[in-house]
Amino acid sequence: MTLDETDALRRDADDPGRRHMFLVPPASGGRYEEAAYLVGNSLGLQPRAVRDELAAHLDDWATLGVEGHWEAHDPWLSLPQRLAVPSARLVGARPEETVVMNSLTVNLHLLMISFYRPSGTRTRIVIEDAAFPSDSYAVRSQAALHGLDPETTVVRLRPRAGEDALRTEDVVGYLRDSGDTVALLLLGGVNYLTGELVDIAAVTEAGHAAGAIVGWDLAHAAGNVELRLHDWGVDFAAWCNYKYLNSGPGAPGSAFVHARHLGDPAVRRLDGWWGNDESTRFEMAPVNRPPATADAWQVSTPQTLALAPMTSALQLFDEAGMPRLRARSVRLTSYLMDALDAVTPGRPLDVITPREPGRRGAQVSVRVGGQSAGELAKRLRFEHGVLVDSREPDVVRLAPVPLYSSYHDCWRAAAALAALC
Ligand SMILES: *Cc1c(COP(=O)(O)O)cnc(C)c1O
């Protein structure tokens, strides 16, 4: 393929996505009006509907005060439960397995308090070496909470020499050989750095066969790839709503607990009044009575104003449907890879995301040489109006988001990389 702008524009006319429902930032440089926004894996764009949604809650607060908890247009007390329904659909869960609360790392901690239960020689927590730092810190501190040494308790699985992505067969192999020492396997469904999509079903099955609990960080998977958490038997999962799910900066996270753990008195939790059954919550009794749903993991009052954008943001996924979005995502990333292949030969650029569409999400990561990734990202932004994310020392991440990214955005990224590298 040669880089051809007209071809990119024609593809956009044929396969337009839903960009018109979003506010796209202006470019900070280059010759186009709008930014080529390829950082929706960091913060999703603002859906146009969000401003009115938020304003309606502010109006309710102004006119109803505390009564807004029951009488707001979208009553505040029950808003998290209503949001659990589209959240559950996104990840293939039942609404009672899903709860919207806190933020991602906090939720991972709350879930590990329940599901990381080291005993005897089965104490290890297995993560991927390229885990997001917050996840790494979280598991190390969980090991320490149990009086264990994080250095020996946390195992970091590495790709094979000369490879960038972790192979499913290697994760499965580790579990087969050393699984009896593993208490918890906690991996990213789509790796934040390489964009690799892990075979969640196969790894979950292997973890269970080894006798381990299997949890997933779906920060880069929810709203990106099709998920069937209930059917796959995943024990627990957590994800954020501000990346692919476009619910705004600081949007609360979501969590999943499989139905087989719900209502199990052997599962311990950190409790607060919001985890009490809603029918008796306001009786103010001294002993908690949790419901047999994921709501039992709630601790505190929901952050209503931060939740508000989720209603319209998640609706866009129900309208488009994940299968259609995923299909468009594969077309976009395939186009982007082809466009990059047209410019990487002879340049210090190397695509590290797996080539097979079934092994990647909506992200293509590129290792760069000769200049720092951060410097390159700045030049892409200010000289070409292309927004990409950089991870020092040498990776830039390009995420064409199927709801709003265009082929032209991908073309611009490839053309700008060619100009700067
Ligand atoms: C974005 C991201 C986080 C961020 O966690 P917060 O608690 O929401 O700040 C954690 N883990 C992964 C894998 C992420 O991609």
Strand sequence of the main sheet, in spatial order? 4-10-9-8-7-5-6
Approximate strand percentage: 5-15%
**Tally of separate helices:** 14
Shape: globular
What low-confidence regions span 5 or more consecutive residues with pLDDT below 50? none
Tell me the count of domains: 2
Helices and strands, in order, run as HEEEHHHEHEHHEHEHEHEEHHEEHEEEH
Can you walk through the features of this model?
With 421 residues, this protein is of the alpha/beta class. It folds into 2 domains: 5-48 and 321-420, Aspartate Aminotransferase, domain 1; 75-241 and 253-301, 3-Layer(aba) Sandwich (Aspartate Aminotransferase, domain 2), CATH 3.40.640.10. It has helices spanning 5-14, 50-64, 68-71, 79-91, 104-115, 133-145, 150-153, 168-178, 200-209, 229-232, 304-320, 322-343, 373-384, 407-420; strands at 22-23, 36-37, 46-47, 98-101, 124-128, 154-157, 182-188, 213-217, 236-240, 253-257, 349-351, 364-368, 386-387, 389-391, 395-398. The strands form 4 sheets. Strands 4-10-9-8-7-5-6 form a 7-stranded mixed β-sheet, sandwiched between helices. It has a 4-stranded antiparallel β-sheet with strand order 11-12-15-14, with helices on one face. It has a two-stranded antiparallel ribbon with strand order 1-3. β7 (182-188), α9 (200-209) and β8 (213-217) form a beta-alpha-beta unit. The two termini are 19 Å apart. Bound molecules: pyridoxal-5'-phosphate. Pyridoxal-5'-phosphate binds at residues 103-105, 132, 134-135, 188, 192, 217, 219-220, 240, 253. Pyridoxal 5'-phosphate binds at residues 104-105, 132-135, 217, 220, 242, 273, 301. Pathway: Amino-acid degradation; L-kynurenine degradation; L-alanine and anthranilate from L-kynurenine: step 1/1; Cofactor biosynthesis; NAD(+) biosynthesis; quinolinate from L-kynurenine: step 2/3. Belongs to the kynureninase family. Its cofactor is pyridoxal 5'-phosphate.
